[in-house]
Amino acid sequence: MCGIVGYVGEQQAAPILLDGLGKLEYRGYDSAGIAVYDGENIEMKKSKGRLKVLNELTHDGETLPGTIGIGHTRWATHGEPSDVNAHPHFNEDRSIVVVHNGIIENYLKLKNKLIRKGYQFISDTDTEVVAHLLDYYYDGNPLRTITKIMHRMEGSYALGIMFKEHPDELYAVRKDSPLIVGHTKGGCVIASDVPAVLRYTRDVYFIENEEIVRMTKESMEFFSVDEEPIEKQSTHIEWDVDAAEKGGYEHFMLKEMYEQPKAITDTFSPRIKKNDVVIEELGMTDEDIKGIGKIMIVACGSAYHAGVTGKYVLEGMARIPVEVDVASEYRYRNPLIEDGTLVVIISQSGETADSLAALRMSKEKGAGVLGIVNVVGSSIAREADNVMYTWAGPEIAVATTKAYSCQLIAMYLLAMKFAKVRGTITDGELKEYIEDLKRIPDQVELLLNNKLRVQKFANRYLAARDVFFIGRGVDYAISMEGSLKLKEISYIHSEAYAAGELKHGTISLVEDGTLVLAVLTQEDLYKKMISNMVEVRTRGAFVMAVTNEGNDEVERAADYVIYIPETNRYFTNSLAIIPLQLFGYYIAVGKGCDVDKPRNLAKSVTVE
Ligand code: M6R
Fold it and tell me: How far apart, in Å, are the Cα atoms of 392 and each of 201, 407, 413?
């Protein structure tokens, strides 16, 4: 959601800015722009639409010479997507220029005040307020000016700023929006996210709330809002550059689906020691684990769906009561958090605004918070009491696949660990679960290699208008995720239902040709599911089933069946999701949709 880049150094800035913005495309955007300073003037180019337009406008950066600059991909919040609303934004005499990620919540109040002082605005954005506010307080000292506006702005921001009077200095500051900086050979870079800087450095500094950075081609200095210098440690990023490139695949989403076997292995293998589950980073003794009275899982979107699976698995295996909540609801409902509650926040990006707010509120209420996060050093990872990383590597496609699969694995590992310590499973059962876990990567591979069968089916349904996903137990959890995968990238309306709920209203929508995807992997619920499938089929639905090998009885109630290999009842989601991901993907491809960058969506939802 909005991407920021910046560069100061010995090289030409524009090509580096454009390259960085390209790496941030996945975050979602509707316009883009760059501003480059050649020592005389700050020149700017910006435009609505894809980066391709900006590349053409600037002849791949050639028309904007200069060795210091800032760039931005905008995801509209205040004001429609347009050339004029695109960032960067200038003050009136074009001596200060900013790019911004976040929302200035009191921008109207500030704007009215500035208008009363004679400032004229040309855009509808909250960001232009920042440029004029900097101008208003500017006293020749950029650092002091920035701290002054920080005291006046409410909301969230990551800013890249240049001052004409300081041609060698690039400034960056953040509050509640992600920002990283790093040294390159002969310069410094700033960005919203790691993939934009990987080509230039692996050692990055995560800027904390209300920290300011002053960069020149030789130096990088950090300051607090009181202008006090700060010492910071860099974080080494292990991801390799290729991991953030498409590597011959047509889409990032397809590549990332194929990376699932490795990502899953990377996530569980460091935590399996002989026949035991060892999660050192949990920071919990056996006594602490025995003392857990309740687990609250809080997350958004697919991460929330992983949490729903977690509820079934943790309650089933470890017999601990689990509540799952979407973060945007949880943070405003004043939840009851008793002693002994463990709050688990799941997030791929570690920057989702609602999840971060939920984390902070939980800590204020005295709960211990465990983060399950993919991006190392992200806000949720830093602010949680303990963090268990999912090792999926960089995920670029907006629709999550491999990070979600790793979140499922994290849920299983927690359940196994807690169950073992609390004595709700035997050593023998744990050993069997570990064996099943180790088989998942190969089983996922097998299902991925069977993609043509799913593709063939998907091609028949490109014109579908409504699709229902149904399941019971963990299969209901995976139905939610399957339905989200389909709708977010193919724009086909789709709903997930607990199969037993159909009769309470939704079945009235089923008519001739309605597509229903039924997931049935829970042996004790086969019969119930088959009855539900028969019910929709007799009302004209076409039913595709995803079920376990050997459940031949399903054939009498389904028109098309995808079988998944054998595993235990808790781990089936890791296998059933593969045909559902492929189904969503191939429908979107067949419809000619922009699979990796679906409309209106952002990879990292850093504003409410
Ligand atoms: O980065 P997070 O895991 O916190 O993101 C949460 C959701 O925004 C995310 O899972 C979203 O639903 C995905 N685009 C779904 O594919």
Answer: 20, 9, 15
Determine if ligand 1 sits within 6 Å of the CB of residue 397. Answer: no
- List CB contacts of 187: < 8 A, sequence separation 6 or more: 7, 8, 9, 10, 11, 67, 217
Is the C-beta atom of 347 inside 6 A of ligand 1?
Answer: yes
Q: pTM of the full predicted structure?
A: 0.77
Q: How many CB atoms lie within 10 A of CB 219?
A: 12
Same domain, 390 and 289: yes
Q: What's 429's domain CATH number?
A: 3.40.50.10490
Ligand 1 centroid to residue 598 C-alpha, Å: 13
Using a 6 Å cutoff on CB, does residue 374 contact ligand 1?
no
Q: Is the CB of 302 under 6 A from ligand 1?
A: yes
Domain boundary, last residue among 445, 475, 494: 445
* Neighbouring C-beta atoms of residue 592, cutoff 10 Å: 8
User: Which residues are tagged catalytic?
Assistant: 2, 603
Of 26, 324, 348, the residue with max ligand 1 atoms within 8 A of its CB, to mutate for a pocket test, comes to 348
Among 131-140, 169-178, 193-202, 308-317, the minimum mean pLDDT is found in 193-202
Is the backbone peptide bond immediately before 394 cis, with ω within 30 degrees of 0?
Answer: no
Query: 352 C-alpha vs ligand 1 centroid, how far in Å?
Result: 8
Sign of CA dihedral 356, 357, 362, 363: positive
Q: Convert the pLDDT of each residue in 57-93 to its tens digit.
A: 999 999 999 999 999 999 887 888 899 999 999 999 9
Residue nearest to atom 14 of ligand 1 (CA): 399
Residue 247 has pLDDT above 80, yes or no: no
Q: What is the DSSP letter of 518?
A: E
